[in-house]
Amino acid sequence: MALDDDIRILSGVSLFSGLSAEQLRLLAFGAEAVRFQAGREIYRETAPADCAYIVISGKVVLYRDHNGESVAVSRLGPGAILGELALIADSRRLTYAAAETDVEMIRLNRSLFRRILEEYPEAAADLHRRMLEDLQEFLKKIERLGVKFAD
């Protein structure tokens, strides 16, 4: 895939919405195109996470272990990002991911993403602000749900 195609795909991912064209170009230049055949494992739940994936084409299924059984919790298609937390922090995979169909993805590693944030502190500040807003919205949703489950 051409660099311009990767830039276009990355620009559609909300996590990267605050990045400039130059920053997206750097990210795309350091990205790796990967393919997985239908049924193939992408990563295992609890495995160390050092990268994120953006789905270009195909479908990915995310599973969680429940009493020793893999339960599908989500299906993701083009434009979705998997494992974004791995771009900014040492973490472990929260799900097991497998290709439901043949899948083409962009793999972004943490060291590249961190380098961009270090070189462009305004992008890091914008990302921090947006992540904080997302977390606050998530906490509000939990509070609203909590009322339904209160004794």
From TrEMBL:
- List, for all copies, the residue spans of the domain called Cyclic nucleotide-binding: 15-134
Domain of life according to the entry:
Bacteria
> How far does the signal peptide extend, from start to end residue?
none
Q: Which PANTHER family match?
A: CRP FAMILY TRANSCRIPTIONAL REGULATORY PROTEIN, DNA-BINDING TRANSCRIPTIONAL DUAL REGULATOR CRP
| Protein name (database record) | Cyclic nucleotide-binding domain-containing protein
